[in-house]
Amino acid sequence: MPKYVPPFTVTSSIIRLIADIAELIGRYTVAQDISKVLRLRRINRIRTIQGSLAIEGNTLTKEQITAILEGKRVIAPPREIQEVRNAIKAYDRFEEWNPGSKDDLLDAHLCLMSGLLDSPGRFRTGGVGVMAGKTIVHLAPPADRVPSLMEDLFQWIRTTDHHPLLVGSVFHYEFEFIHPFEDGNGRMGRLWQTLILSKWNPVFANIPVESLLYEHQADYYAALNKSTENAESSVFIEFMLKMIIDAIEHLPTPEVAPEVTPEVKKLLSILKNEMPRRQIQEQLGLKDEKHFRVKYLQPAIAQGLIEMTLPDKPNSRLQKYRVTHRGMIFLNDLRIES
Q: Which of 142, 133, 228 is nearest to 179 (CA)?
């Protein structure tokens, strides 16, 4: 019997995107400051967990996820807290799993969906459809075909000579098409693609592609649906490769400006989520707006530690400020040093 090969076409665009990603990853790996790797990993993992779960409707913020990671009490729906705790455990065990192993996939699903389903870690036994509102946009294959379809897919992963960047995207699409579990298919598909990529280059364990997928959620589902219409996954492959490039290009440089004034440190320490200028001033106990802007706000923006929510309208009455990814790294460094 001939080996199963998922249907896709290796387009010139896919070849170019794979080459671009390989070059970007090479440059990023060389540029890394080893002393910052663990700190970056922690921050990017929080972004990964928040992005992947947000696609599934979880409303917890990066700050709340950080608090759960640190063992602090968080007031939120119990299911959403459980989802975060499970995701943290899954990424802690990430390096244990083999992307070509069905047993490891089932173990990962058990870890990710424990306490959320009646039978986590088992393939579904009933029919399932993917809904968009009240409309079924994809009717998954019958449950009795799931084991054989997944075995074919794993066999292909173990034997293919294609580049892992392509393999990861193909697996992700085929996995979502099969929809092998009662629930948790989206987060599992994204987790497993990251696992495939991290076995090629470990740096992918720290690249939060999921946060970009959340920002481009409609395009993500459109690419899945278009590939299903075409009966082959090239559209989805190209989309995912572009998301990976964007995620790499948005990674911060490891260094943070060394000269950060006490005023800027105070500003960063009180800035939570998104806050307007007046609220920030009140929290700092400052009455002089000019002094606040010159000594606190402007230096923090210039150093890339905070940013405006409406950068094209700097004087808008709706303007707010938030800590950047670079600022989060700096804050994490301060906690470690203290």
A: 142
The pTM (predicted TM-score) of the whole model is 0.72
State both tokens at 84. Answer: 């975060």
The two tokens of residue 42 are: 């922690």
Among 191, 194, 205, smallest CA distance to 108 is for 191
Structural domain count, the chain:
2
Regions of the chain with pLDDT less than 50: 1-2, 34-35, 254-258, 336-338
CB distance 149 to 100 below 8 Å: no
Instruction: Compute how many other C-beta atoms are within 10 angstroms of the C-beta atom of residue 267.
Output: 27
Asked if the structure places residue 255 within a domain, the reply is no
Q: What whole-number distance in Å separates Cα of residue 175 and Cα of residue 193?
A: 10
In this predicted model, what pLDDT tens digit does every residue of 273-328 receive, in sequence order? 889 999 999 999 998 999 998 899 988 898 888 899 888 888 888 999 998 877 87
* 256: in domain: no
Q: Hey, is 132 helix, strand or coil?
A: strand
In the three-class reduction of DSSP (H, G, I as helix; E, B as strand; rest coil), residue 315 is classed as coil
Residues 151 and 296 in one domain: no
Instruction: Count other Cβ atoms within 10 Å, centred on residue 121.
Output: 17
Q: How far apart are CA 241 and CA 170, in angstroms?
A: 11
